[in-house]
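Project outcomes to date are best conveyed with an example. Our students and postdoctoral researchers have been running inverse folding experiments weekly, and each run begins with a structure described purely in tokens. The record below, which covers 202 residues, was selected by the lab manager from last quarter's runs and is presented without edits.
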């Protein structure tokens, strides 16, 4: 990353957590820490500016981080990514989901190291883009906004209009197991798996 390029770390905490019985996924405890605390620790070791996108700020006030609401409520991940990017200080936002307990600083650094080289810097595992473990430049805001206003919510829908740099799975795998570092905890079964992984150690 060029010294002239500044990136804000953005945590998306806007989901309704219906598959977790209504309990906010980010606040589920794992190994003595809430998942969102684990994410804040990792992001804070890489980036100096962090913020949270949420329409329910009260549960996250204990973190002491700036919080912004969705500009386009109920517009899915794209709405949250747009809102965080719009509020981000500097040139772009590294955006991550609030339910990724095994986020790896080394992989975050890998993505952020390419800031300034493209409008989107994003890992790709198999055929899957990791849209909530990616760097978005401010240049993405106009095409994102156009999609949101057209009620088109697929995150990768605006990619043809911007410069995209893909981080290959093999490059991520040199630093961490992609099946673990990109893992989301959306269901009780996934939470049980996360606890088992944590208990098994590194």
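After processing, the design step wrote out the following sequence:
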């Amino acid at each position: 990353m060029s010294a002239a390029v500044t990136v804000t770390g953005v945590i998306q905490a806007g989901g309704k957590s219906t598959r977790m019985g209504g309990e906010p996924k980010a606040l589920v405890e794992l190994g003595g820490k809430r998942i969102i605390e684990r994410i804040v620790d990792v992001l804070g070791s890489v980036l100096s500016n962090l913020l949270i996108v949420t329409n329910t700020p009260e549960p996250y006030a204990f973190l002491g981080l700036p919080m912004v609401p969705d500009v386009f409520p109920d517009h899915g991940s794209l709405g949250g990514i747009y809102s965080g990017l719009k509020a981000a200080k500097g040139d772009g936002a590294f955006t991550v989901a609030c339910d990724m307990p095994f986020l790896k600083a080394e992989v975050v650094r890998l993505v952020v190291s390419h800031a300034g080289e493209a409008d989107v810097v994003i890992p790709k595992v198999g055929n899957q883009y990791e849209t909530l473990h990616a760097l978005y430049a401010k240049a993405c805001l106009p095409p994102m906004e156009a999609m949101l206003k057209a009620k088109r919510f697929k995150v990768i829908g605006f990619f043809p209009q911007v410069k995209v740099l893909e981080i290959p799975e093999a490059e991520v795998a040199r630093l961490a197991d992609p099946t673990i570092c990109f893992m989301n905890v959306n269901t009780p079964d996934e939470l049980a798996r996360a606890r088992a992984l944590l208990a098994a150690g590194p």
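The mean pLDDT is 93. The first strand starts at residue 7 and ends at 12. The training component of this project remains on track.
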